[in-house]
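Milestone 3.1: sequence recovery, worked example.
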């Protein structure tokens, strides 16, 4: 069990203290959803929240109390040069003025009113419940979260979480690696059921282990006092036993690359226990840390895809200055097989230009259903060629020290 190192960087705001006996909050990639247990017949829906779900009640309805106030219609484009501060969703304070700019959903127009009318813009909404036993009320608001990682040239790999959302106070907090797909007040629950994902869970003792529940990726952070709009947490720290940077090219199967393109420098490592991790990694930004004057700084940003444990992780670091490539389709024939399927026979020449005296570890990688590497020809000084190709994947690892080219003979069944 790893420790969950928590460092909170807080931007203090007014906390929405939701009444209720027990609260669960789920921050999705695109929204915040909070559920609270409630046993009374009337519930005031707070500003910045909308009603999502009610369960356990025999019946319910929302009573809206609207206050009349003066406003005028405006063109939103007339305010592009003003400094606007969002008070809550679609309601803005205009810097240096006593006006409030807001979107009037009843008439689908942007409007302007005096700041003294701010409390009247949003109607007072009360949920009226005919409850029978335990009732849960679901509310949603703006929110999101993302993964970030740090990796340095010594193999130190740090996982971090950044959370943005409307404060809700003390809650059991979950981060879910999917979009909740809330649009116009409608909750598309089936989107969650289709989500393939990875999971982490944390108990109240601030430790966690990998876990999958209902095929949904989540972080269970336990009980958290969510009293700010922004929180940053260091989730875990790893030490990679080995990793490798390779100059990677991805030839185009449908057109020539005539102007030399820089190879992508990608850092590869095995996501295994023996290599220092062995945990499912969610996709996110990766910062490459390097030392300058005995200090470590983040200087390059890459990206890692969803990487299950016991698979190879890829981090795209940057483009090469010295190794470039171009590709030419020298043969392209499609015919119909006896089984009635189309089969495409291709030959692609990939030319490498090495403008330095260095030797670069290089990779050719193509992924497409039905593709097969039938053979290849090495022309020049590419060496130490390792053919890792398999069904649907073309994969060659080799070294490039000078200008050279490789010809790939491919077949693609459709």
């Amino acid at each position: 069990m790893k420790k969950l190192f928590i460092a909170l960087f807080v931007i203090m705001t007014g906390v929405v203290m939701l009444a209720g006996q027990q609260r669960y909050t789920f921050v999705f990639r695109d929204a915040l959803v909070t559920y609270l247990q409630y046993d009374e017949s009337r519930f005031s829906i707070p500003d910045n929240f909308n009603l999502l779900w009610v369960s356990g009640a025999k019946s319910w309805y929302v009573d809206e109390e609207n206050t009349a106030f003066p406003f005028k219609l405006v063109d939103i484009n007339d305010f592009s040069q003003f400094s606007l501060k969002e008070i809550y969703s679609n309601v803005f304070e205009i810097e240096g003025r006593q006006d409030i700019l807001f979107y009037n959903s009843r008439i689908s127009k942007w409007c302007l009113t005096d700041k003294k009318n701010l409390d009247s813009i949003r109607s007072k909404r009360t949920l009226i419940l005919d409850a029978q036993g335990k009732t849960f009320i679901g509310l949603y608001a703006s929110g999101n979260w993302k993964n970030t990682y740090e990796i340095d040239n010594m193999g130190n790999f740090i996982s971090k979480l950044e959370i943005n959302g409307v404060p809700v106070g003390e809650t059991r907090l979950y981060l879910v690696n999917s979009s909740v797909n809330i649009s116009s007040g409608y909750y598309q629950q089936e989107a969650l059921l289709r989500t393939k994902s990875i999971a982490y869970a944390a108990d109240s003792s601030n430790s966690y282990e990998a876990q999958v529940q209902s095929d949904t990726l989540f972080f269970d952070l336990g009980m958290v006092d969510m009293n700010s709009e922004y929180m940053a947490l260091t989730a875990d720290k790893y030490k990679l036993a080995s990793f490798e940077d390779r100059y990677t090219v991805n030839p185009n199967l449908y057109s020539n690359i005539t102007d030399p393109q820089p190879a992508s420098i990608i850092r590869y490592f095995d996501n295994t226990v023996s290599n220092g991790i062995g945990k499912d990694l969610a996709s996110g930004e990766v910062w490459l840390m390097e030392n300058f004057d005995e200090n470590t700084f983040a200087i390059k940003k890459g990206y890692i895809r969803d990487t299950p444990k016991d698979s190879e992780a890829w981090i795209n670091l940057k483009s090469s200055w010295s190794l470039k490539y171009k590709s030419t389709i020298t043969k392209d024939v499609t015919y119909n097989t006896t089984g009635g399927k189309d089969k495409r026979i291709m030959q692609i020449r990939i030319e490498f230009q090495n403008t330095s005296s260095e030797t670069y570890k290089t990779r050719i990688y193509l992924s497409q259903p039905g593709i097969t590497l039938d053979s290849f020809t090495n022309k020049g000084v590419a060496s130490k060629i390792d053919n890792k190709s398999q069904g649907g994947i073309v994969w060659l690892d080799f070294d490039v020290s000078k200008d050279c080219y490789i010809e790939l003979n491919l077949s693609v069944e459709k």
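The mean pLDDT is 82. Residues 150 and 200 are 19 Å apart (CA to CA).
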